[in-house]
Amino acid sequence: MGALLGIFLHAVGGFASGSFYIPYKRVRGWSWESYWLVGGVFSWLVAPWLVAVLTVPGLRSILSKTPAESLFWTYLMGALWGIGGLTFGLTMRYLGMSLGMAIALGFCAAFGTVLPPLYEGTFITLWSQPSGRTIFAGVLVCLIGIGLCGWAGMVKEKEMPEEVKRENIKEFDFRKGFGVAVFSGILSACMAFGIAAGKPIAAMAVAQGVPALWQQGAVLVVVLAGGLTTNFIWCVILNIRNQSAGDYINGRTSPLPNNYFFSSLAGVIWYLQFMFYGMGTTQMGQYDFSSWTLHMAFIIIFSNGWGLYFNEWKGSSKRTMRLITLGIGTVILSTVLVGIGNYLAAGSGQ
Question: What per-residue confidence (pLDDT) applies to 160?
Answer without folding.
Answer: 67
